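Hey, why these numbers?
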Amino acid sequence: MKMATATEEIPVLVTSQEKERIAKLADDAGLSMGEFLRPAAESFHPEDEDALLGMIDQLLKTTARTSEAIDGALEFVDVSTKRMAAFDLKPPCSWGWLVTAISSREP
């Protein structure tokens, strides 16, 4: 099958840094910039981008919920640790033998 000859131009404005990066990628692939960019343009599908943006949005929501759950767990541990420390500071009471017996039990 004979390849069609490219006869049309599509002017695209890019920054000098973008042009350098594209030129390097094309050069590394052993292609001209046109040969490099044509398949990239053909493979772009906006619906793919919408799906990706949806996944990113869901990831951010899940990350926020996970972070809140971790913060809650850490707060619970902190409160529990302080409660246990306060218990250890109380003078022994008539139930001290029970506390000692429970805390010395093997799991």
Observations:
- The chain has a mean pLDDT of 83.
- The longest helix spans residues 46-89.
